[in-house]
Amino acid sequence: MSTIETANSKSQHAYTWIRDRIGRHEYTPGYRLVLGAIADELGMSVVPVREAIRRLEAEGLVTFERNVGARVSVVDEDQYVYTMQTLSLVEGYATALAAPLVTGDDLARAEEINDRMQRLIEHFDAHTFTQLNHQFHQVLYAPCPNPHILELVDRSWSRLSGLRDTSFAQIPDRPRHSVEEHTQILTLVRDQADPTQIELATRRHRLRTLDAFLAARHPDASHH
Asked: For residue 86, which of 207, 177, 196, 205 has the smallest C-alpha distance?
């Protein structure tokens, strides 16, 4: 393995390691990422860790402040709203474009994930539910033939990954409805429904989670 390949694989390892901890909320919003300490823990130099932090910064998961250093981003409500609105558009369109290319195996896999989500509702685990939710949607949008749209979808999901756990935890009725809507989307894809129908169903599904989140945050306000 060349020196460049070694550096890349170390940087990838550091990136995955830090990102997992942000996703599991071991590194909570505002947590200071000390490059030297992380490098020591991973048994590598600071260089690949710095590269990993740069990637996480580009995805919006880490914020770099002068004289402070790298911190896990504190994602405010506006950022959550903007990201969910963006995801509703790009994921809806990606799912519609992917639909004709989704195989029977893909549908079976999505159904199996949704069944697991259904079983989780009784003994709710927000972190696992969130991971399965992403996997479900990924199965349905991954065959999208437009790489630019896929990149936008993945970027939006990355932005959400630091706060998704809390969103489902704050809206206790939403997971059940979410699973029901997944079943409707699966039916549309299986029946080869009009792509616009699939796009709108996916978009509305995403926006309903956003509406439920906002309603829980602001119980006195009305949301449309």
From this structure: 207
pTM, rounded to two decimals:
0.70
Q: Are the C-beta atoms of 72 and 20 separated by less than 8 Å?
A: no
Residue 193 to residue 99: CA distance in whole angstroms: 9
pLDDT digits (tens, 9 = 90+) for 117-143: 999 988 888 778 888 999 999 999 999
Q: Is the pLDDT of residue 221 over 80?
A: no
What's the structural domain count of the chain?
2
Backbone angles phi, psi at 163, to 5 degrees: -130, -5
Residue 117: which of 204, 203, 180 has the closest Cα?
A: 180
Domain that holds residue 54: 3-72
Establish how many alpha carbons lie within 13 A of residue 173's alpha carbon, considering only the half-sphere containing its beta carbon.
7
Q: Are 138 and 94 in contact (CB under 8 A)?
A: no
User: Which residue, 193, 94, 192, is CA-closest to 143?
Assistant: 94
